[in-house]
Amino acid sequence: MRKSSKLVGLAGAVLALSLLAGCSSNEPDPAQRAVNAANQADQAAARADAAAQKSAASAAEAQAAASRVEQAASDAKAAADRAEAIASKTMSGAPHMVHHHYHHHAAAAAAPSDAGAAPAPDSGGAPAPAPSTP
Q: Is residue 127 classed as helix, strand or coil in its secondary structure?
């Protein structure tokens, strides 16, 4: 009986020491560590999903902006083409108008001498005499 009580006492001491060691270490048991790891993985997956959604939204906004820039460039090119066409028409019409204007002055200068109009005043600076009345 003495041997049994020593053995029970020894087992009790070992059990008490192991309980004290387990409580004082403050380390979670393997099951708790697994639960903590699963929770961290779940949180990381949620953050990754949110980042992926944000990235997709940013990509869609960038695509829309690129389309607007492309449309603006197309509109600018069309406006430049119209301006070039107007400038081309203006430039091609300008010499003809100057040429026509030149002939008009030449015809006007020739007309008074043909019609017997009064001669132009001389370049001496004195005014022409007034015509006399009968």
A: coil
DSSP code for 81: H
Rounded to two decimals, the pTM is 0.40
Phi-psi region of 28 (alpha: psi -120 to 50; beta: other; left: phi over 0): beta
What span, in angstroms and rounded, lies between the C-alpha atoms of 36 and 45? Answer: 14
pLDDT tens string 36-84: 999 999 999 999 999 999 999 999 999 999 999 999 999 999 999 999 9
What lies within 8 Å, CB to CB, of 81 at 6+ separation is none
Distance CA 78, CA 66 (A): 18
Q: What is the helix (H) or strand (E) element at residue 89, kind and residue range?
A: helix 30-115
How far is it, in rounded angstroms, from Cα 3 to Cα 95? 133
